Structure formats: structure tokens, C-alpha cells
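Take a record:
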Amino acid sequence: MAEKTTDKIYSIKEIYYTLQGEGFHAGRPAVFCRFSGCNLWTGREEDRHKAICQFCDTNFWGTDGINGGKYNAEELANTIHSIFSESTEKEHAFVVFTGGEPALQIDEALVQAMHDRSFEVAIETNGTLAIPANIDWVTVSPKANTEIRITTGNEMKIVFPQPGINPKDFSEQAFDHFYLQPMDSKDWEENAIKTINYCKEHPQWKMSVQIHKILNIP
């Protein structure tokens, strides 16, 4: 479990208001807070050949994105709150902490700061690192050639097909929902067909598509 701290500084790539594009909460308005850094790849293209996760297409390097920078817990919570409040009514506040790998930085103090502002807090993690116990919604997206430490949560979401990952190996874990999401590549249509067929043959699994990419949701 991450330690509770009051003076920690978080490195943030970007913070923005949008709709969740995939999984259980697809279509739900949310503030996305993307942490810099990941334990499976540096984020630099020159290091791609050494990355554990070879298919990542997310820019999580540095702090130069919209609203990116260095924050303590109160500053970050206030920024997220202001972005949500400026955009919509103050009820149903939802923040998704993502990356990179948010488990490298997120702690109980930050989650509590968001709870103090009436936010429901979600995390999207590769599952290889411990996370705070007070997070409301946990999505684990496992990657091949890693040791998964988080085996319970709300949502298991596997990019499919993924060499080295067999959904059957995760089907007994204690998650509320199980999703397969077609790998976004030049073979997307073929991957989508494979995902559809797998879900039809294994109805424990549901199909997730990235509607933010299909609809160009900013």
C-alpha cells in the first residue's frame, strides 16, 4: 500500500476534461489526469525496442501537456476540481488517474484530497505495482512478460490479441467485469473480429472499443 504523504510532488503530463472512451464507464464525463512515467517503457521512441510493452501509443513523457506540471496533492486536487467545475455541473464528479503508470506516483493523500472534493476516483493501471486502498474504481490492463500484483478490482481489460497474454489466465481473478479490447494497430479490423469471436465463445468477457478514437472525442 502506498504511504500517505502531504508534501509529495507529482509529475503530471496532462489534465483535461473529456468522456471516458472505453470499458465499463465508456461515455461517462471525466477529468483525465495523466501521470508522467511508466515502469514498462521510458516513453522515448529511441527506447521502444527495449520496452516491455511494445504497443503503447500514449504520450506520457515529460510535463508539457495541457495543464501539465509539478503539483502537490492540494494543488493537483484543486486543479482537477476547477477543470471539472468550469466544464459542467458540480455533481457526479469523476477523475481517472492514468499514465504511463499512475501507480508509480499516486498515494492515499491524493485520493483523499479528491474525495474531500466529492470526486469518485478511478485508476487505470498495468497491475504490476501496489496502489492505495482508498481508490473507488480499479481497472487493470495486464501486459505480457510482467508479474501482476493486483488480482482483484472492478475491471479487467486486456488488449487483444496480445502475444504472451491468454485471457483464460485471468478469468478466475476477482474482478467485477472482464473486457477484451482490440489492439489498435494496422490490423485493427482483424483484431476486432478475433475479439468478437473470443467474446462470443467465452461470454464471461465483453468487448470494449475505444470510442474516443472512433468518434475523435478530444
